[in-house]
Amino acid sequence: MAVVGMIVHLGRASASAQARELADGLIADGHAVRAPHEDAETAGLDGVEIRDGADFADGLDLVVALGGDGSMLRAIELVGSGGTPIMGVDHGQLGYLTEVEPAEAADAVARFLAGERAVEERMLLAITVDPGDGSAPIELVALNEAVVERSADVNTIRLRVDIDGEFFTTYAVDGMIIATPTGSTAYAFSVRGPIIAPTHRSMLVTPVSPHMLFDRSLVLEPSSPVELTVDGHRPATVSVDGRRIATVGDGATIRCVAAPHSAQLVTFGSRRFHHVLKAKFGLNDR
User: Domain range for residue 78?
Assistant: First the structure.
């Protein structure tokens, strides 16, 4: 018997309907299905085990995330460092992370449980936010990026950048993005950062609207910590994988380095990264 977790896009009826179908089939075959309370309630999953937070990943053999890249990010957050493989079923708009089309989902789950699959490792960022005001540091993990940027009511911010414990320079910018290779096609891509193969291991440092001559991205060793320090009275906001975490002031530090564990994404060899890029940007027609 396997234990399969379900993460469902809470705003897509098609994802909920397929989650019910998959859960019913797995339970009928003698497997156990688990879901967070909100997912189970929204999708109408009957007969599943309800677990939230850190308890969700305990003892799981597989997590199926039905939705888009946002659902995959939520699954990765819930799994934490447990190393549970995650299968993405694409109910979005050709996400970069979702591997399986809805029509193939039941067969893909069966193939995984039969041992017919591969697991692709994706580097994660370990992030420590120290507000610098005496409050406790915040520790997080990201698949895509950490972003430090100006608040809505200020212009540029000043960010001191240290690499591997040594001062690099101070940027006057709208923001800075510290991204993984997976995150190179997220926010960093929109500010003309380079595209990096997602299974590569590196850290991408990309300034957002720099007010200085040096405006290039840096591709760094993943083991070299990058530390951003807010330099000046203007506040900055810190976001991780699109979620706003905190607003911080002068002296606050944000430290990023490769996490000791990786995200484990199920793959069947059906989609190569350059094929996804071609489809995403209409390059097949050129």
Answer: 3-117+268-285
For residues 106 and 50, membership in a common domain is answered with yes
Distance, in Å, from the CA atom of 157 to the CA atom of 178, rounded to the nearest integer, reads: 16
Angle formed by the axes of helices 105-113 and 13-28, to 10°? 40
Both tokens assigned to 2:
């396997």
The H or E element that residue 180 is part of is none
Please report, for residues 7, 106, 226, 259, the alpha-carbon distance to residue 122 in angstroms, rounded to integers and kept in the order given: 19, 24, 19, 10
69 is catalytic: yes
Same-domain status, 276 and 234: no
The dihedral built from the CA positions of residue 121, 218, 169 and 212, taken in this order, carries a sign that is negative
- Distance (Å, whole) CA 25 – CA 15: 15
Task: Residue 23: give its domain's CATH number.
Answer: 3.40.50.10330
130 and 244 co-located in one domain: yes
How sure is the predictor about 94, in pLDDT bands with cuts at 50, 70 and 90?
A: low
- One domain for residues 31 and 140: no
Question: What is the rounded end-to-end Cα distance, in angstroms, of the chain?
Answer: 49
- Which alpha helices (H) appear in 149-254, and where do they start and end? 187-190
Q: Is 86 helix (H, G, I), strand (E, B) or coil?
A: strand
**Among all chains, which residue has been given the structure tokens 């009275």?**
233
> What does the pLDDT average to over 156-185?
97
Residue 276 has pLDDT above 80, yes or no: no
Catalytic option among 69, 90, 130, 241? 69
Residue 15's φ and ψ, nearest 5 degrees, are: -65, -40
Whether 275 has a pLDDT exceeding 80, the answer reads: no
